[in-house]
Automatic annotation (TrEMBL):
It comes from Digitaria exilis. This is Expansin-like EG45 domain-containing protein. GO terms for biological process: systemic acquired resistance. GO terms for cellular component: apoplast. It is found in: Secreted. Keywords: Secreted, Signal. The keyword Ubl conjugation does not apply.
Length: 140
């Protein structure tokens, strides 16, 4: 019976390590979010394939020549950028998929769909300070 406990503990530890190795969360980065409105098609990454509404366009900050296509980010509003809406943040985060490119002159680091922006902030703000985190899927 004494042998079962170390094996069980080792199995639990191994399962935790494997689970963490499959999806890794990279440290958050500060930036700005804006939003764009429908229609979301075509997109630079998926053409006319509908990817839903929890989507975003990447700016040159992390577009990487299209390398950002399909990447998943969690975005959280951290503060206002203007005086019109002094407290725009909802306190919620949203997970989005990069499906498009926000070309040079883009006002934000990430251009969220209108629906995704509304989850994290009051759309009347138009632009908010954010923290974003990219999920990196590791393969073996």
């Amino acid at each position: 019976m004494a042998m079962a406990k170390p094996k069980a503990a080792a199995s639990v530890a191994l399962a935790m390590v494997l689970g963490l190795a499959m999806v890794s969360l990279v440290a958050g980065t500060s930036g700005f979010a804006t939003f764009y409105t429908p229609s979301y098609l075509p997109s630079a990454c998926y053409g006319f394939q509908d990817q839903g509404t929890m989507i975003a366009a990447a700016s040159d900050v992390f577009w990487n020549g299209g390398g950002a296509c399909g990447d998943t980010y969690t975005v959280t509003c951290t503060g206002a950028t203007n005086e019109g809406v002094p407290h725009p943040c909802t306190g919620r985060s949203v997970t989005i998929k990069i499906v498009d490119y926000c070309p040079a002159g883009c006002r934000g680091t990430i251009d969220l769909s209108q629906e995704a922006f509304a989850i994290i902030a009051n759309p009347d703000a138009g632009k908010v300070q954010i923290e974003y985190r990219r999920y990196v899927r590791l393969t073996f």
